[in-house]
Specification:
heterodimer; A: 702 residues; alpha+beta; Beta-galactosidase, Chain A, domain 5; 12-stranded antiparallel sheet; 7-stranded antiparallel sheet; 15 helices; B: 120 residues; mainly beta; 9-stranded antiparallel sheet; 1 helix
Chain lengths: 702, 120
């Protein structure tokens, strides 16, 4: 109780310091006729033009109407509380509504209205769970993923003539207003949900605000609109505080960045259609660290929503994929329609560069935006010096000072282009923890070369798998150093699926060197907060065609240091004789999943050669997370194809490590983020201080 | 110390790059000195790089490089200039040819014209 009171006082004090935004209501002008949320009359006209002009649009439209026709054939069946089918049913209502917009055929609107009215009839009869769910259980995000679609569907058919005025009122009073209570905290000093980060700064809140804002705009409730945009944890807070100064959402995972961008996009566009331009508003940098849950980075000037669209461009490898650090995927862009919308609002040629060649055939929202000018699509890093308000660009390399990433890229010789697909790039991960979706992976790397991630990170196992806690949230599943076979803080010897810092103790790495010139680039970072009494520093030098990796460990006491690399290849050669070892490397902290172990001991140079053996890069084929909650299985989602990966026999990675007496070498197999297995190289030394000095040399050919 | 230099040729398959990794003598016994040397750009005429870790003395491009204590520095020779970037936590005196510079933590970069080295 005392703790709750203390929290209420802290929150009240914090709220005092949050800048008062100019009210958005002064420019609010809600159109008199639906639809006017995400789609309006103008965007419907654009969709029809696109369908008339472009084969891809006809394909999308055809698929959507075909799906709508299938829905028409079946009776509406109401799922039980908590069934994921609620979200699917809401999606059906939306598909039907969009089909109506595209065809003007009222049979689609009728069926959509039938679903919406049934929810209006039933909604308040579902028991409220933990103030966070009615149709779903007590996770408000799941309720949001159902509700936002119903609001959009309602907006799209509200004035089609299928609702009486009484029915409209029924939807407003018995569905929208009660549902908003799930997402809206009226009093942050007394509501128990206020203690939950999900109702303040986490990705959940972007969805909460979407639901409150959409409903407010839809039924003309100014208080709801103001809450969603200007509220203490509204849209503007999310941009001013929750987006770091280097463009990335504070949870660090680029997938969660995209997952937050998705609802913010829907809300911004819906607001835009009602006279509120959130796309161009400059929002003050909020530097107060609410509950100290993550590091802030000083006031570097005002921010804009555009930063969120920009972030992935500075993070990607040459093939437009990214390192799937923390709970994330390799596809780091938030999807085609988001960038079609962004292009329409900002006319930034890099958004067209991203869209060029992308397949839109699964993306019906793309229909409603004008075709970008692909002829003038352009993105190159050369000549840029910054991104966000503190991101740094030198040559073709980028530094995210707040989020804690460096991406070293081989400078392109074509000054107007992005680095060549076959060139070498590296992601260095050394920053704050980033909340429950963070991993104990400080100072880890991902190596890209020749169109594949040779040293990958695995993102996360499915959230409903125990392997999330037992493997992907363990340090040994990352390309970094494990000390004494125990995972870095905050995981330690635990198996938490969502490991979190016990504040005020933080797990934080700091990048203190970044330099790039036309022939080399360098980065270095360190941490002393993940193992007590041990300072870890990693320095990485991009030498054109190779990476020099210098990983130093310092302690006053001897420890066992395991330098770990996961390699997406097959061991072809080793300068060290390796003998099979029956004994496991450990029975906890992920070591139990390493098998087929071979062991050697060396005082000489350790050189291993790894080759692709013709199998396709199976690690790339992962679902697109953006339509639903990342990594939750069984929720479908619209597949977004990733680039084809060549499997040219002969592509090779050599890893050469300088000798230190008593180095043990282990080669084995470990899992990835599925049961798929891939090799692991582990070099072990026992000492107080040591430096692993390795060259990583990927090359093509024999 | 045994010479364990590594040379890689044609890493990309597109040019004639060479990268060498060598352990080097270090006046401080027990500490590993490493030099990673890239002549990657020699063929294209852009420049050369060397990364010295814990190194006190090294010869690079016929030029003597000496440090007052084991030092981590990143050196690029390009357009007849030596560009020196001190590693983090690096301090001391670094001599390239005849020119000596004071390296301090937090210093970003020194540019030393090659002519200055020759003249002195």
């Amino acid at each position: 109780m005392k703790q709750a009171m203390r929290f209420a006082i802290v929150v009240s004090l914090v709220l005092l310091f949050i800048p008062a935004y100019g009210s958005t209501l002064s420019s609010l002008k809600i159109p008199s006729k639906h639809p006017y949320l995400f789609f309006n009359a103008s965007s419907v006209a654009t969709a029809k033009e696109n369908i008339a002009k472009y084969p891809w649009a006809r394909k999308v439209s055809g698929n959507l109407i075909s799906e709508a026709n299938d829905i028409l054939k079946k009776p509406v069946v109401f799922p039980a509380k908590g069934d994921i089918e609620h979200q699917i049913l809401a999606r059906k209502a939306e598909i039907l509504a969009v089909a109506y917009l595209l065809t003007d055929d009222k049979k689609y609107a009728d069926k959509s209205a039938e679903i919406i009215l049934k929810y209006a009839d039933a909604y308040t009869n579902y028991p409220l769970t933990r103030m966070r769910g009615r149709v779903m259980w007590g996770e408000s995000l799941q309720e949001a993923l159902w509700f936002y679609r119903l609001v959009l569907a309602y907006d799209e058919v509200a004035d089609s003539g299928v609702f009486t005025s009484q029915q409209k009122k029924h939807v407003e009073d018995d569905l929208m207003r009660p549902a908003v209570k799930i997402f809206k905290v009226d009093d942050y000093s007394s509501d128990p949900r206020a203690e939950d980060i999900h109702f303040r700064c986490a990705n959940f809140q972007t969805w909460h605000n979407l639901c409150v804002g959409l409903a407010g705009l839809c039924i003309g409730d100014n208080e709801m609109i103001s809450y969603a945009i200007d509220g203490p944890y509204g849209f503007k807070h999310e941009i001013g505080h929750d987006v770091r100064d280097d463009d990335v959402f504070w949870e660090r995972s680029l997938s969660y960045h995209g997952f937050a961008l998705f609802p913010l996009d829907l809300l911004a566009e819906s607001s835009y259609h009602c006279g509120i331009d959130l796309f161009h508003e400059k929002i003050p940098d909020i530097i107060e660290d609410v509950r100290d849950n993550y590091a802030v980075n000083g006031d570097n000037g005002p921010k804009t929503f555009k930063m969120m669209f920009d972030a992935p461009f500075y993070y990607i490898f040459p093939d437009k994929t990214g390192a799937d650090v923390a709970d994330s995927e390799r596809e780091v862009f938030a999807g085609n329609w988001n960038y079609r919308l962004a292009y329409q609002r900002y006319h930034d040629p890099k958004y067209a560069w991203y869209l060029k060649g992308r397949d839109d055939s699964n993306d019906y929202r793309s229909l409603f935006f004008k075709q970008p000018d692909l002829e003038n699509a352009d993105f190159h890093l050369q000549g840029q010096t910054k991104f966000g308000t503190n991101g740094v660009v030198q040559e073709d390399s980028t530094l995210f000072p707040s989020t804690g990433y460096t991406v070293l890229r081989q400078p392109t010789t074509d000054k107007s282009g992005f680095p060549d697909l076959d060139s070498l790039a590296l992601n260095f991960n050394c920053g704050p923890f980033g909340g429950g979706h963070g991993h104990p992976d400080k100072l880890s790397i991902v190596l890209y070369a020749n169109q594949r991630q040779w040293l990958p990170d695995f993102g996360s196992f499915d959230y409903d798998s125990p392997m999330k806690g037992e493997w992907t949230a363990q340090t040994v599943s990352h390309n970094t150093v494990v000390v004494d076979q125990i995972s870095q803080y905050p995981t330690g010897t635990g198996n938490e699926a969502y490991p979190s810092e016990a504040l005020p103790k933080k797990a934080i790495g700091k990048i203190d060197l970044f330099h790039a010139d036309p022939i080399t680039s360098i980065t270095s970072g360190w941490t002393d907060s993940v193992y007590d009494g041990i300072t870890m520093r990693r320095t990485l030098v991009h030498l054109g065609q190779g990476i020099l990796d210098l990983y130093s460990l310092k302690s006053s006491q001897p420890h066992v240091y395991d330098y770990v690399l996961h390699i997406d290849g097959r061991l072809a050669d080793s300068t060290i004789t390796l003998s099979p070892q029956a004994e496991k490397l450990g029975d906890r902290c992920g070591y139990q999943f390493i098998d087929n172990i071979k062991h050697g001991l060396s005082d000489k140079l350790v050189e291993t050669t790894w080759k692709i053996v013709g199998d396709p890069n199976r690690l790339l084929h992962q679902p697109n997370p953006y339509e639903n909650h990342p990594r939750v299985s069984g929720q479908g989602g619209e597949e977004s194809p990733l680039p084809d990966v060549p499997s040219t026999p002969g592509d090779t990675l050599r890893i050469v490590t300088l000798p230190v007496s008593g180095t043990e070498i282990f080669v084995g197999n470990s899992i990835t983020n599925t049961e798929t297995r891939t090799p692991i190289l582990l070099l072990r030394r026992k000492s107080a201080e040591t430096t692993f000095a390795s060259l990583m040399l990927p090359y093509k050919g024999v | 110390m045994e010479d364990s230099s590594v040379m890689v040729q044609s890493a990309s398959g597109k040019d004639t790059n060479h990268i060498y990794l060598s352990p080097v003598e270090n006046v401080f016994q027990g500490e590993l000195g490493v030099v990673a040397r890239s002549e990657a750009a020699a063929a294209t005429g852009i420049g050369w790089t060397a990364t010295l870790v814990n190194v006190t003395r090294f010869n690079f491009l016929d030029t003597e490089i000496a440090a007052s204590k084991p030092m981590t520095v990143f050196i690029v020779y390009r357009n007849k200039h030596w560009i020196v970037t001190p590693g983090p936590e690096t301090s001391g005196k670094l001599t390239i040819g005849a020119h000596t510079i004071e390296v301090k933590p937090g210093d970003k970069q020194f540019e030393v014209p090659d002519d200055m080295l020759r003249v002195q």
